[in-house]
Amino acid sequence: MARAPQRSPGLIKAPTGITGLDEITRGGLPQGRTTLIAGGPGSGKTILGLQALVHGATTQNEPGIFVAFEERADRIVSNAASFGWDLPALQRRKLFFLDAQPSPDLVHTGESDIHGLLAAIEARVRTMRAKRIVFDSLDILLTWLGDPTLVQREVGRLHDWLLESGLTAIVTARAPDQLASPSGVLQFLPFLVDCAVGLEHTVVTGVSQRNLRVMKYRGSGFAESAAPMIIGERGIEVAGDLPVRGPARASTARVSTGITDLDDMLSGGYHEGSSALITGSPGTAKTTLAGAFVQATCARGDRALFISFDSEPAEIVRNLASVNIRLTRHLREGRLLMESRSALSASAESQLLAIRRLLDTHRPAVLVIDPVSALSKQGNETTGFGVAERLIALAKSRGITVLCTSLLGDASPHGEGSRIHVSTIADTWIHLSYHVVAGERNRALTIVKSRGTAHSNQVREMTLGARGVRLADVYAAEGEVLMGALRAQREAEEQAKAVRRDAERARRAVQAERVGAELRARIASLQEELALRTAELELATAVDAAAEDVRRKDRRERVAARRPHHPRSEPPA
Question: Which of 165, 254, 395, 564 could bond 400 through an S-S bridge, CB–CB 3.0 to 4.6 Å?
Answer without folding.
Answer: 395
